[in-house]
Specification:
about 850 residues; Topoisomerase II, domain 5; five-stranded mixed sheet; alpha+beta
């Protein structure tokens, strides 16, 4: 206890511990928010960044400075250690916008650190010097020790906050603003000034792909998904060509190795080939699908990351949460006001210069300087005489003549004035008047002036700053659909257990630990459970399999006896949706019910069986055949159709059945490049299990594929996707870049190998496929010329091009021209299924 004070006084009054804690913590939180972690909306800089830039401006002489020297200069303004300043400076340099760097500044892609400050150098970029500094428009404050002035905020004439992005953690709040594209920000500012709508989305130095569906203007609650670009080099090798924002190559490789160790993916090895460009090589294990592995890499590794933005900035000394549209609008308005202030300062300077130059002209032209040769009593009398001599000319001036004006004139050397000197002053005045007129025009048309300013920025600094991150929506990848079967599932059929730890029992199959398992018992109980070490299903398990939700093709055929009546029933059913761990009774609910016969059929097959009745029953015919194809597929809770009221001895398979389901209807989703059965995209038709798909690519290759839904296609590289018919003739027009001509050819597919590409156009750099069709009588619309010279020619290809081998070069169609465009005339099917022209 403090001397002379009670405990209650120490802890409860405002000067005691409790009172000090209340104020000191609030002061500390405010300090961290305002002075360390969160950027100001005016210039988009945190205090340490602003002080670094100000220090570099003080040092700027056009040459590079050692970073160690810059840190030392910045410490005059920033009351923290050299390490924090150095880290912030390296971060600014790596953004490659405000600072030009020299030496090893590290690499955000690989996570390599920069060299020590004494080894690397930096200077302000030309862009920074143009947009971030102007002493005349800067508000100043004393530095922390009161020895120097530092800017309150920099006069930033650019939306720097959105261009660079920022991340900071304060007391009780954080900020995370993603970087945006330099050129797109300027274009958006121009649209804003013009009153047009605009959109801005994140763009990352590391490239890759970004899904901005849920960006929510960068506000709290928004989210973006970022993916690395993964290329299929061949069927055994994948190449990762960049890393997502915030991920390093080392971290990405670690996540791949971890996923492999956990059995989520199967790879042989991963190699980092990164040099000037990122390249991580992933060698696949034998028999592993590259398409499924790409999906698995996105699902289980850092090849895809989710980023939650949280745009928090300091506005009027308070933190506020804003969206990127409001941030851009504020930055653009701020730029316009700064430009206005610069114009007003410029106007005042021009007017002052015009005033003095006009005085100087009158002073010499009207020989007022001769008052200096007259004998006046005092210096003040001389000044008064000169002022009086100016009286007839004061109406020509725009402001009163001050004593300082006259003193300044008298300080000029008195010499003989030639006509040439007067003419020079007249020319200066004329030039000043033109400049004043232009500045007044710019002030009167401030929006147009600001637009021109932004357009000039784009012209001077926009080259090489094009978008690096591709914007595209991502399809949702179900982790359990792409997980490699990494777990062995065992079954104790009699006791009714399944699990991964029952290694003394029978191995059922391998599955993923993300799978759901469906199981059936002899009693007629069905249950769906997660993969676990040991899970009880029920005694006498008769079937176990991986459960696929919404599977409408897997059909279960079953004959069971109702324990209450002794009558046997048969039914066919699907299981599309269930509640996990819930028991479903497939019989009529009697505990004595029992399944006589059960099969699971992946394609709705309906077999025929022979039913043998008990020899002691009174039935006249004790053996007969039953055909499941005569039953409709109903819900799992259906009772089924009565088979017999007599006791059954056994049921034997007589003949395997054929599928009773219609062919699979497939669609091609050209948004995500996926085959699907959910009616998304272009309808491809009905497919049975043996039919194939034809895919024709823009580079002149074709490929035959199966109907596996996990296949990945790049829609931008595909010209044709359809059901493969070996009898159909393919008509293609391609550019022969060597001869600068378009060739046309007609051919049939002669190859049968699946998942292999075959080049059917002439091989050569720049050669590309223009159009392709499988119509019987294709008509090409060839558009040439532009404007008044535009013309369209209809060409019936089948009339002059014969069917040839798929490797043939083809016939010349037309000479190459940049204005040439081509398309097929649309066709439709008549009532007989024949193709006819519109």
């Amino acid at each position: 206890m403090l001397k002379g004070k009670s405990n209650e006084q120490v802890y409860n009054n405002d000067t005691g511990v409790h009172g000090q804690y209340k104020t000191w913590f609030l002061d500390y939180a405010s300090y961290v928010i305002l002075e360390r972690a969160v950027p100001a909306i005016e210039d988009g800089c945190k205090p340490v960044q602003r002080r670094i830039l100000h220090a570099m401006k003080e040092m700027d002489d056009g040459r590079f400075n050692k970073v160690a020297n810059i840190i030392g200069q910045s410490m005059q303004y920033h009351p923290h250690g050299d390490a924090s300043i150095g880290d912030a400076l390296v971060n600014l340099g790596q953004k490659d916008l405000l600072i030009e760097t020299q030496g090893n500044w590290g690499d955000v892609r690989t996570g390599d650190a920069a060299a020590a400050p004494r080894y690397i150098e930096a200077r302000l970029s030309k862009f920074a010097l143009e947009v971030a500094f102007n002493n005349k428009t800067t508000d100043w404050q004393l530095s922390y020790d009161g020895r120097k002035n530092e800017p309150v905020t920099l006069p930033m004439k650019f939306p720097l906050l959105l261009a660079q992005g920022v991340e900071g953690i304060a007391v009780g709040l954080s900020t995370k603003i993603l970087p945006h594209n330099f050129c797109e920000l300027i274009e958006a500012s121009i649209k804003y000034l013009k009153g047009k709508k605009y959109e801005i989305y994140p763009d990352f130095q590391t490239g890759g792909m970004v899904d901005i569906t849920n960006y929510n203007e960068g506000k709290r609650g928004g989210k973006v998904r970022v993916r690395a670009l993964i290329e299929e080099f061949d069927k055994k090798t994948l190449l990762i060509k960049n890393v997502p924002y915030g991920v390093t190559t080392g971290g990405l490789i670690d996540s791949i190795i971890k996923a492999n160790d956990q059995g989520k993916i199967k790879i042989r090895k991963v190699t980092d080939n990164t040099a000037a460009e990122v390249e991580i090589q992933v060698d696949l294990a034998p028999g592993i699908s590259p398409d499924i592995t790409i999906d698995a890499l996105y699902a289980f590794t850092d090849c895809e990351v989710s980023i939650s933005p949280n745009a928090c900035v300091i506005v009027d000394q308070k933190p506020r949460f804003l969206g990127v549209h409001e941030l851009l609008a504020t930055a653009t308005d701020n730029t316009r006001e700064l430009l206005k202030k610069e114009l007003e300062i410029r106007l005042a300077e021009l007017q002052e210069k015009w005033h003095y130059t006009s005085l100087e002209k009158i002073f010499f032209e009207e020989k007022i300087y001769k008052e200096l040769e007259k004998k006046h009593e005092t210096w003040e009398k001389v000044l008064e005489a000169i002022d009086k001599a100016f009286t007839p000319f004061k109406k020509q001036l725009k402001r009163p003549i001050t004593r300082e004006d006259i003193v300044k004139l008298t300080e000029k050397p008195v010499r003989r004035i030639y006509k040439l000197d007067i003419d020079d002053l007249n020319a200066q005045i004329k030039g000043l008047e033109a400049d004043i007129k232009q500045v007044n025009h710019d002030l009167a048309n401030l929006v147009e002036f600001a637009i021109a300013y932004y357009e000039n920025l784009l012209k001077k600094f926009g080259k090489g700053r094009e978008r690096k991150t591709e914007i595209r929506p991502f399809e949702a990848i179900q982790a359990k659909h792409v997980a490699i079967a990494n777990t062995k599932l065992y079954v104790n059929w009699a006791d009714g257990f399944i699990g991964t730890s029952l290694k003394k029992d029978e191995l059922a199959f391998e599955c993923s630990d993300l799978d759901d398992i469906i199981a059936f018992t002899r009693r007629g109980i069905m249950k769906v459970v997660r993969v676990g070490e040991k899970v009880y299903i029920g005694k006498d398990i008769i079937h176990v399999a991986v459960f696929q939700k919404n599977d409408e093709r897997t059909t279960y055929n079953m004959i069971y006896v109702d324990g209450g009546t002794g009558t046997s029933y048969a039914k066919r059913f699907n299981v599309t949706g269930i509640t996990r761990d819930k028991e479903y009774d497939l019989s009529r609910g009697n505990d004595k019910s029992k399944i006589h016969y059960f099969t699971a059929n992946a394609n709705g097959e309906a077999e025929s069986v022979t039913i043998v009745l008990s020899p002691n029953c009174s039935a006249r015919n004790k053996q007969f055949d039953f055909y499941f194809e005569e039953l409709e597929i109903k819900g799992r809770s259906a009772q089924g159709n009565q088979v017999t009221k007599y006791p059954i001895k056994n049921v034997k398979l007589k003949e395997a059945g054929r599928s009773t389901l219609s062919a699979i209807k497939l669609w091609f989703d050209d948004k995500f490049g996926r085959l699907n059965t959910e009616q998304k995209g272009t309808y491809l038709g009905n497919f049975d299990g043996t039919e194939k798909l034809l895919v024709v690519y823009t580079d002149g290759n074709y490929e035959l594929t199966d109907l596996e839904l996990t296949q990945r296609f790049d829609p931008e590289k595909i010209l044709l996707v359809e059901k493969f018919n070996p009898e159909k003739v393919i008509t293609a027009v391609y550019l022969d870049n060597d001869k600068l001509q378009y060739n046309v050819k007609r051919f049939r597919i002669e190859t049968t190998t699946l998942q292999s590409r075959f080049l059917f156009i002439k091989e050569g750099a720049g050669n590309r496929l223009e159009v392709v069709t499988t119509d019987d009588k294709p008509v090409l619309l060839l558009h040439t010329g532009r404007g008044t010279q535009a013309r369209t020619q209809k060409i019936k290809i089948a009339g002059f091009v014969e069917v040839m081998g798929w490797k043939a070069v083809g016939n010349k169609l037309a000479d190459f021209s940049k204005s040439t465009e081509m398309e097929w005339e649309q066709t439709e099917k008549d009532d007989k299924g024949q193709t006819s022209l519109f």
